[in-house]
Amino acid sequence: MSNAEKPRVRGSRLTHVVNELCKSEHGLLSWLARGGRVLPSRDLVVAAAEDLRSALFPGYYGPSDLNEENMRFHVGATLDRVRIVLKEQIKRGLCFECDHHGPDCPGCADKAESITAEFFELLPRLQHTLATDVQAAYLGDPAATSTDETIFCYPGILAITYHRLAHELYILGVPLIPRIISERAHSLTGIDIHPGARIGERFFIDHGTGVVIGETCVIGSGVRIYQGVTLGAKSFPLDQQGHPIKGVERHPIVEDDVVIYSGATILGRVRIGRGAVVGGNVWLTHDVPPGAVVTSEK
């Protein structure tokens, strides 16, 4: 084969690979069957979440040379930028799941604008709740030297920040984007919190790696959990086709002021009563009364 022929052969092989990758028979390109609807951009959603974190914790994330004079400008400019990006990404998510219109559906555009406005109105309350989480981390860890350290360094604070953002969008009915945000936190921290989980104030995850909190979990205020804890489902009710039924309440309810130590696994719609302590490596599939102490059998 001559040198002139080699590039043509390589090009032909590459064309074949491209054609194979762009086939839709395997189901990985389901969006093609939806009228060419444009998906949300994962990169833009992740960047927006990080910008929101810098607005919720000004001076800690983003520019570090803020003062009282320029902080308002920074927060305002950041939120203005995020509002534009987030509204477009929410619209894309809504349009993708819309059964009646294409990517320029006016109903989805109007709904996205309304959701975005409502979400931004929630940010001051969300910041207040995060302040209680930061205080819980500082008070709950004897190794913490300041609340500043917990904001800068603790994976639990990063995870709960992303979760509280994702949860509000989830409650507002936004498709796809809450999971993108929560899985970003998961990839950064090893803490997996489904955006549907409801978590009260003063929540603290210490260390954090390997924590799993399922979609229908309800967690009260002042709860502290350690690494490797699973709050999961015991079983999944199935439909006639053998597929899990969506939306069933299947995860634990953890009442106020509960402590769950490392490696504990709590499965099913069980209730852990207020002030209870669940010891390390405990396997639980039943209710625990308030104030009880549960340890693993030896």
Question: How would you sum up this structure, described in words?
Answer:
With 298 residues, the chain is α/β, with parallel strands linked by helices. The protein has 2 domains: 38-190, Orthogonal Bundle (serine acetyltransferase, domain 1), CATH 1.10.3130; 210-298, UDP N-Acetylglucosamine Acyltransferase, domain 1, CATH 2.160.10.10. It contains 7 helices and 14 strands. It has helices spanning 5-21, 42-56, 68-97, 106-140, 147-153, 155-171, 177-189; strands spanning 192-193, 198-199, 204-206, 212-213, 218-219, 224-226, 230-232, 253-254, 259-260, 265-267, 271-272, 277-278, 283-284, 293-294. Strands 1-4-7-10-13 form a 5-stranded parallel beta sheet.
- Indicate the CATH topology of the largest domain: serine acetyltransferase, domain 1
CATH homologous superfamily of the largest domain - what is it?
serine acetyltransferase, domain 1
CATH architecture of the largest domain: Orthogonal Bundle
Count structural domains: 2
Radius of gyration: 23 Å
Number of helices: 7
Which stretches of 5+ consecutive residues score pLDDT under 50? none
Distance between the termini: 73 Å
TL;DR?
The chain is of the alpha/beta class and 298 residues long.
Secondary-structure blueprint:
Blueprint lengths: L4 H17 L20 H15 L11 H30 L8 H35 L6 H7 L1 H17 L5 H13 L2 E2 L4 E2 L4 E3 L5 E2 L4 E2 L4 E3 L3 E3 L20 E2 L4 E2 L4 E3 L3 E2 L4 E2 L4 E2 L8 E2 L4
Parallel strand pairs: 1-4, 2-5, 3-6, 4-7, 5-8, 6-9, 7-10, 8-11, 9-12, 10-13, 12-14
Helix pairs in contact: 2-3, 2-7, 3-4, 4-5, 4-6, 6-7
